[in-house]
Amino acid sequence: MSQKVNSVFADNESRDGVRMSFNCWPASRIEAAKLVLPLGVMYIPFKKRENKLVLQYDPVVCRTKNCEAIQNPLCSVDYRAKLWSCVICNQKNNFPATYAHASETDMPGELYQESSTVEYSISSGIKNVPTAFLYVVDTCIEPCDLYALKRTLLDSLHSLPPNTLCGLITFGKYVYIHEINPLVEKAYAFKGTKEYNSQELRKLLKLDRQTASPAPTLAYGKQGPSVPTNKFLKPLSETLNLMEEIFEGIQLDTFKVQRGRRHIRSVGAALSIAVNLLETTHTNIGGRIMSFIGGACKNGLGMIVDDDLKKTIRSHHDIEQSQAKYFKRATKFYEALAMKASQNGHAVDIYMAAQEQIGLFEMKSLLSLTSGNLVLSDSFESSLLSESLKKLFARDETGNCQMAFNAVMEVKVSKELQLQGCIGPCVSMGVQHDSVADTEIGVGGTTQWNDPMIRDWFDQDAAAVLLGRLSVFHLERKDVSNVISWLDRNLIKICQKFSSFSRNQPESFVLPQSFEFFPQAVYHLRRSPFLQFFNNSPDETTFYRSIFLREDTESGITMIQPYLFEYSPLTGKESTPVSLDATSLKKNTILLMDTYFQVLVYFGADVVYWKNNGFDKLPEYAHLKVFMKAPLEDAVEIVSNRFPLPRYVVTDEGASHARFLLNKVNPSITHTHPNYQGEEGAILTDDVSFEVFLNHLRKLVVSSQS
Fold first, then answer.
1. Cβ-based burial of 319 (10 A; exposed 0-12, middle 13-18, buried ≥19)
2. What is the b/e burial string over 661-699, where b = at least 16 CB atoms within 10 angstroms of the residue's CB?
3. Which of 340-344, 380-384, 406-410, 526-530 is predicted least confidently?
4. Measured between alpha carbons, how far is 411 from 345 in angstroms, rounded to an integer?
5. Does the keyword Magnesium belong to this entry (predicted)?
6. Backbone torsions φ then ψ of 85, nearest 5 degrees
7. 655-699 per-position pLDDT tens digit
8. CA distances to 95, 342, 443 from 425, in Å
9. Which helix (H) or strand (E) holds 565?
């Protein structure tokens, strides 16, 4: 039964991009509350599908004003009477005139059972509306970083479609908007300490005198906004060579930095001017602000730190204790900026390359509200940035970038259901409806099933990721200790609900097969970088959480509980999945760990000895060469297929980078164990092992006082 159910979960995700915590639902609100875990859905918008169906006509919509659901395979259809009943509101609707031929043998494409997900290519949609890409570049960086960054920017230009509109803003102490003019090199300077709204920019840049292209036609015959053409955003097809010259001409900030001081960097002002410039020229038209930032904002808007290097950038402790001087003001500034960008249909990307923090914790709303991309690296010389941009600008079969702008996701449910909210990179449209629940989570505003059916159709991977997202959401308002306590309480309750046990007898505790790995996932979630701050800065924590909130179930469970593969000389290049446990650390094997953010290859002590002494180069040990090469090849393949690119680490047992693996595995063997005698794989830590965690869970679940 379990294999069959898991196959259904995988098929649903492959076909529709959907995974649900419970795939069989109770009939009442009271019964739903007893489930403890939320009835949630993990959904992947714009998921790539094999044999996807694209319909070349407008969707057929229910005529009920408060419904307007789209015809689908779940609707009942009367082909003789040419009627269909809406599955959401039960309203009977007439077929449109174009469906006069429809019958059981000649069905419209959206009514086939396999058409649970379809795409509509609307004939009256937007035509030839160019997308704006506005580069925002930090010039307070090292010369080697600037050289590498310019190479990356030039490569990205050649990846964009020819009809793309491109522009450039650079910033240091001042912010410069570069004019795209073949006759003269010209840039407009703005103070980094002053906020300029869109009306002021329009006046200062004399954009009122610019001409505009004809307004595009939107769906259903509505007129869209006009597409301005101006001296700051020009079509790449006309200005590619000029843009290359402008990018090549980017210079370091000319203001000298005194010893012991930070660069006077106006990050907030640059992003504010970029958002307002696009609002002036491309309101409600797709646009992308691509910011390349090499350090923290020290000047004016969005400032997070003083220029004195003796004053360190705020830590998690400073924020929790309200000791971060600029935190609240900067956060409020970036939230307002993010709302403005989102309302205009513009995404804000952050590509950061710095040894210290840049203020990402304060800027996180720019990512969450605009669905912007985030890449974190130590230097612009790193291949992480250039390779991530190549994947970002990859073209589809039609030659277009695989991006979508101004997308609106609307959820239709029957009257028996209400929506509490959405957790992920989105913003509420503020549309009121009867389906909106009173309790808000995230951004929001047969008829009877028995427990065994609900239990058997539980998707523990999807539930773990949903629980992780809820935890991240709660962390915006609660302390970590409170969120971990909330996690523990929910785990105890769900185990009491679905396990079998005898009161006060921990050894009698048994979980059903569909729940057996759930406590382990929660154990690793408690140890994950989403909830544990040790050795992570606020910016790094923001990076981890931001990526987690936008990825699918498989990626999410990888972040919570990394995959570990073992390579043995006996199996050659074939890998074997092994437990993320200290017992998997062996001297004569190679391990490959995928945490999603990092791909690590770990050589055991014996393998290191063979490698250092060149055994793999001897003909009689040819199998060792195959064995040692296999994990490296597999790691490169994983890295190349992911966006943003993960860090790639190759390390040996006992080396400094081995700590990345030791920090993730379950410390089932530690130096504090009563029988410890220097065993292979022992971890020097005070963290509790999963075995201790599970034993404590058993006691709490079966306790008569629980």
1. middle
2. bbbbbbbbbbeeeeeeeeeebbbeeeebbbeebeeebbe
3. 406-410
4. 20
5. no
6. -105, 130
7. 999 999 999 999 988 766 655 555 566 777 878 999 999 999 999
8. 37, 11, 9
9. strand 563-567
Looking at 231-286, list the stretches that DSSP marks H as alpha helix, in order from N- to C-terminal side.
236-248, 267-281
The one-letter amino acid code at 310 reads K
- As a whole number of angstroms, the distance between CA 165 and CA 229 comes to 9
Are 317 and 339 within 8 A, CB to CB? no
Distance CA 136, CA 171 (A): 8
647: Cβ–Cβ under 8 A, 6 or more apart, which residues?
Answer: 384, 597, 598, 599
pLDDT, position 221: 41
For 69-77, what is the mean pLDDT?
A: 95
Of 62, 221, 42, 59, the C-alpha closest to 126 is 221
Count the Cβ atoms, other than its own, within 10 Å of residue 555: 16
**Can you list the domains of the chain with their CATH numbers?**
132-392 (3.40.50.410), 509-697 (3.40.20.10)
CA distances to 109, 119, 290, 490 from 58, in Å: 12, 10, 34, 45
Residue 507 · residue 499 · CB < 8 Å = no
pLDDT digits (tens, 9 = 90+) for 194-244: 999 999 999 999 886 554 444 444 443 444 445 556 899 999 999 999 999
* CA–CA gap between residue 320 and residue 326 (Å, rounded): 13
Q: Is 205 exposed, middle or buried, given 0-12, 13-18 or 19+ CB atoms closer than 10 A?
A: buried
Alpha-carbon Rg for the chain in angstroms: 28
Phi-psi region of 17 (alpha: psi -120 to 50; beta: other; left: phi over 0): left
615, two tokens: 């055994």
Question: Over 80: is that where the pLDDT of 432 sits?
Answer: no
